[in-house]
Amino acid sequence: MTDLDFRLDYTSWGRVVRAPHHVLKPRFVDTVPRLTDSEGSFLPVGMRRSYGDSVINSCNHLIDMTGVDRFHSFDEETGILHCDAGVTLDAVLRFSVPRGWFLATTPGTRFVTLGGALANDVHGKNHHRAGTFGCSVRSFGLIRSDGPPQRVERGGPLFEATLGGLGLTGIITDVEIELVRVESAYLNIERIAYGNIREFFALAHESGDRFEHTVSWIDCANGGDALGRGIFQRANWCRDGRLIPHGTKSGAVMPFDMPVRLLNGTTVRLFNTFYNALQKRGPRVQETHYAPFFYPLDSIRDWNRMYGGAGLYQYQCVIPSINAEDAIEALIRRIARSGAGSFLAVLKTFGERQSGGCLSFPFEGATLALDFANRKAETLSLMAQLDQIVEDAGGRLYPAKDGRMSAGMFQQGYPDWMRLRELKDPTITSDFWQRVSYC
Ligand SMILES: Cc1cc2nc3c(=O)[nH]c(=O)nc-3n(C[C@H](O)[C@H](O)[C@H](O)COP(=O)(O)OP(=O)(O)OC[C@H]3O[C@@H](n4cnc5c(N)ncnc54)[C@H](O)[C@@H]3O)c2cc1C
Asked: Lower CB count within 10 Å: N or C terminus of the chain?
């Protein structure tokens, strides 16, 4: 069974681009539409938690894979799980946590599908130890327009092109991943306030070997003496046998688009000052359930509406270690001066482990991620200035978060992009790909 719908204003998490689409929603792997059946191009999508136009295929077909969501098998001895591509991380954890297993790595929301996590080769707070999601993938099923459905095993060129391949190499039907053992659903989390970027890097360096998870909030709104201050968090799993999965109740809902005039330099600065003070209060070490630690924003449904009706851009870059300190400081200085920074900016270091994905975003260095309310030309101009700092430092941007980088910046940042182009399915495309593969 496949549902077919015509949607006028389909959009992504950032809500900047809206476009009409024919949406096909299969319920079973057997009913996934053939890519040769209709005129026009296709794009498989999951929960559309990507921020920009990598999930947009204007005026063409989207194949919404969230209905293809069956569990196939789980080996309690090895932790190998085999599921359809539309199964969400939320569903995996509900199933696996009571059995003492967790995802090897997870992004900052559990409302993403296995197919989407693979196609963006997502990363989490343990990247310095575990690498990306792709490091835990053993194989997957793939449907292309040029042959019968196939099983793709680790090691081959199609495996590498599909990891982080933005859905362009075919429709991922099912995924086999390795979970990791946990002895509790709780983590011991230590919070440490730091005063500047230099202190952040010292903490990251000192924590990498001793802590499985590290991440920090950084104040991107306040300059002067407060420039580069933040709260560093480092955590290890508890071992107390409390294997309680996250709850099923949905939390608060953001019921309307926040008026954009409330999102100005003053409110963002005030929020960051308040957040800094709040985080410094309370115990330095705390036992916390995995849900608020890994997924703080999942407790507010539709939180993206907080950035107003025109949507938001997320800006996420990675800078190689050698230039990270100077470039991150320059980025923060520029953002603080603009008064456009976001409520919650995240700074983290990546380790050296690679998944083999030819378009995987992370490399060894530091990554900064923050949101900007869409103020059109003003926001685009600020991001163009940030691009210059990132490019000069040898960095690149994360396609899953992007909706506007230039073809030149993409091609320079991802020199292996031609390998993906060779293995791309000719019937599949996205607005993102049309923009960045332009020669
Ligand atoms: C609050 C929040 C926090 C986040 N934190 C992080 C983070 O910490 N780290 C990180 O890496 N990312 C993070 N992200 C981004 C998010 O994890 C990724 O964009 C993820 O890939 C989205 O999965 P999805 O199921 O929504 O896929 P979609 O966004 O719908 O699609 C993502 C890509 O996968 C392709 N795709 C989806 N399903 C299939 C399929 N079955 N076959 C082939 N291709 C497919 C699509 O074409 C698209 O290119 C965050 C996003 C949010 C909203």
From this structure: C
